[in-house]
């Protein structure tokens, strides 16, 4: 059975999420909030990344330090995942970024891949799929399928807001992929939007609403 999604209860994140949802939040503030919430989620989702010993020379002596034992990859689903990737890349500049372009066919609500910049043989040992809105789950399921096909050993999903339908679809397709979120909302409406949600996360980041 898939483990329960990890929904952050950090008070600062909960506070910022309310601002993110508000229809009066302008794109510049919306991008900043996506950035700040994504960094908190990234710290939480990397809490269990193993460390290994390394030697460090300080200005005074040589001593033992520790470094990440995983090579981390960030996989934003275009275009709404880009703001999340920026935040995480600032938190961990040595991470690689692989872009996957998926759009939802409006008639079928199924994902269509239009861009795939995954290396054929990824050398990353842990990849984080980033998509702010886990709605039907179709894009996340497909992105993770592509990563598994490319041989990525460990995969996690980070989103901002999910619908219960999206969580169920992702858990059913990929029960071994942990899910990290800022919120799980009530339901999807008839055109696949999360309710109450925040509207279209891509449009709101890039001012194209
Ligand atoms: N994608 C979005 O940007 N918002 C939703 O509510 C659902 C999918």
From TrEMBL:
Essential cofactor(s): Mg(2+)
Entry-linked InterPro entries: PRTase-like (IPR029057), PRTase_dom (IPR000836), Upp_B (IPR034332), UPRT (IPR005765), UPRTase/APRTase (IPR050054)
Catalytic reactions on record: UMP + diphosphate = 5-phospho-alpha-D-ribose 1-diphosphate + uracil
Lineage: superkingdom: Bacteria
The keyword Glycosyltransferase is assigned to this record: yes
Single GO term (MF): magnesium ion binding
Keywords: Allosteric enzyme, Glycosyltransferase, GTP-binding, Magnesium, Nucleotide-binding, Transferase
Pathway(s) annotated for this protein in UniProt: Pyrimidine metabolism; UMP biosynthesis via salvage pathway; UMP from uracil: step 1/1
Pfam families xrefs: UPRTase
Magnesium is among the record's keywords: yes
Residues the entry annotates as binding uracil: 194, 199-201
Activity modulation notes: Allosterically activated by GTP.
Biological process terms in GO annotation: UMP salvage; uracil salvage
Annotated 5-phospho-alpha-D-ribose 1-diphosphate binding sites: 79, 104, 131-139, 200
Domain Phosphoribosyltransferase per the UniProt entry, residue ranges: 7-208
Recorded GO CC terms: cytoplasm
Documented EC number(s): 2.4.2.9
Cofactor note: Binds 1 Mg(2+) ion per subunit. The magnesium is bound as Mg-PRPP.
Family assignment from sequence similarity: Belongs to the UPRTase family.
Function: Catalyzes the conversion of uracil and 5-phospho-alpha-D-ribose 1-diphosphate (PRPP) to UMP and diphosphate.
Name assigned to this protein: Uracil phosphoribosyltransferase
Native species: Limnoglobus roseus
């Amino acid at each position: 059975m898939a483990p329960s999604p990890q929904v952050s209860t950090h008070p600062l994140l909960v506070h910022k999420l309310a601002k993110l949802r508000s229809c009066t939040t302008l794109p510049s503030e919306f991008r900043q909030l996506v950035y700040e919430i994504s960094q908190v989620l990234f710290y939480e989702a990397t809490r269990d990344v193993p460390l290994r010993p390394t030697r460090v020379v300080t200005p005074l002596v040589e001593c033992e330090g520790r470094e990440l034992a995983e090579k981390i990859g960030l996989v934003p689903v275009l275009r709404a995942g880009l703001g999340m990737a920026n935040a995480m890349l600032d938190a961990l500049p040595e991470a690689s970024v692989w872009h996957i372009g998926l759009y939802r066919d409006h008639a079928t609500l199924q994902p269509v891949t239009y861009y795939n910049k995954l290396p054929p043989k990824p050398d990353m040992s842990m990849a984080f799929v980033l998509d702010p809105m886990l709605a039907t789950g179709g894009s996340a399921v497909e992105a993770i399928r592509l990563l598994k096909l490319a041989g990525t050993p460990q995969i996690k999903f980070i989103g901002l807001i999910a619908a219960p339908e999206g969580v169920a679809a992702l858990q059913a397709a990929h029960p071994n992929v942990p899910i990290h979120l800022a919120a799980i909302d009530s339901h999807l409406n008839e055109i696949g939007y999360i309710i109450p949600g925040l509207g279209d996360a891509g449009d709101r980041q890039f001012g194209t609403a």
